[in-house]
Amino acid sequence: MSRSRGSAAISLSVGMKGARTLQQLSLTVKRSLHHHLPPPPPLQRSVGIIGAPFSKGQSKDGVDCAPNQLREAGLLDRLQQQGCAVKDYGNLTFENVADDEPVNGSKSVRAVGNANQTLSEAVKAVKRDGHTALILGGDHSLAIGSIHGHTAAVGPVSVIWVDAHADINTPLTSKTGHIHGQPMSYLLYELQSKLPPLPNFSWMKPCVSSRDLVYIGLRDVDPAEHYIIKLLSVKAFSMTQVDQLGIARVMEEVCDYLSDSAKKPIHLSYDIDAIDPAVTSATGTPVVGGLTYREGIYITEYLCQTGLLSAVDMVEVNPLRGRVQEDVHSTVNTAVDLLLGCCGRRREGNHLPDYLLPEP
């Protein structure tokens, strides 16, 4: 009898444990699913736009024309039509720097330093006014000032860098000397000791931890950059990972990784050359094999729905680099669509909160 009662007790215990295990598994699955369904975005967004027509971080004319091209393509009107309150702060003015000779191999250092200090102050003001900051570049050297100003206003941020290139060369590892290929090395705490003193950069202090940086779309990475990324254990999703995992899984892993420590505001730095040049060829350094239009848009939609997207750089659109006018239109319109995705546009459709059907 005791053996029988014991067996029954054991069976009951196992059954109860099994039921608890299934219940816990169910809760875990539900939590996981809930975690990967971002909260709905707020109904009203307030957007502050800064034009940064700057090209000295690289050598090709035309990228300074992009802010006005993006506006002329209807960016402001389309933001307002999808329910955003928009304040356009206009274009920044950058002073010319005479005798801007290379320093430690890097070109236009003084001009880049001055321009980024100006942009940092502008972004700081936009964030303190309570807006999501949209920075219309210009070349990618501008990320130094935009991210510096963002952190100065809100504290530590997570940086998501969508780009064909890592842009993490130091002045001493860069083969070209163009600072648009170096901005992340200026921003990271861990690389401060690797930067030589540079004129017009005394204002600049590192403000990003390598733990808070994620790359998406890499496919043209210099050996020194690859070494730095591995040395600092930077999270990076190259196009190989995008192909293997799919963009939906990539974005889940990006947000899982960033939320492990703290849910910081997100700074999205989006180089248009992340998108395949079949779609966006009007850019200075196109690289084949990039993100599709759909993958590029999905990134913006996903990040918008986290509710954490706080500032966006849109850089390296160059209206003078397209082979025909259609290339320019495709590149500019894609950049506009990416910015709209950052600000709440959804491909399944949008309507304003107070929309009413007309009466007959």
The helix/strand series, from N terminus to C terminus, equals HEHHEHEHEHEHEHHEHEH
Distance between the ends: 82 Å
Can you say what the CATH homologous superfamily is? Ureohydrolase domain
Question: Order of strands in the sheet with the most strands?
Answer: 2-1-3-8-7-4-5-6
**What value does the average pLDDT take?**
90
Helical content stands at 40-55%
Q: Assembly state here?
A: single chain
The name of the CATH architecture is: 3-Layer(aba) Sandwich
The rough form would be described as: globular
Strand content: 5-15%
CATH fold category name: Arginase, Chain A
Q: Note poorly predicted spans.
A: 1-23, 25-35
CATH class: Alpha Beta
- Spatial extent as radius of gyration: 23 Å
Concise account of the structure shown:
This protein has 360 residues and is of the alpha/beta class. It is built from eleven helices and eight strands.
Spell out the blueprint of helices and strands.
Elements lengths: L1 H34 L9 E8 L13 H7 L2 H7 L2 E8 L17 H20 L3 E6 L5 H12 L3 E5 L20 H5 L25 E6 L4 H9 L3 E4 H7 L1 H13 L6 E6 L21 H13 L3 E7 L9 H18 L18
Parallel strand pairs: 1-2, 1-3, 3-8, 4-5, 4-7, 5-6, 7-8
Helix pairs in contact: 4-5, 8-9, 9-10, 10-11
Report on this structure.
Helices cover 40% and strands 14% of the residues. With 360 residues, the protein is of the alpha/beta class. It has one domain (41-342): 3-Layer(aba) Sandwich (Arginase, Chain A). An eight-stranded parallel β-sheet has the order 2-1-3-8-7-4-5-6, with helices on both faces. Strand 4 (158-162), helix 6 and strand 5 (213-218) form a beta-alpha-beta unit. Helix 8 crosses helix 9 (247-259). The longest helix is centred in the N-terminal third of the chain and has 34 residues, at 2-35. The model is unreliable at 1-23 and 25-35 (pLDDT under 50).
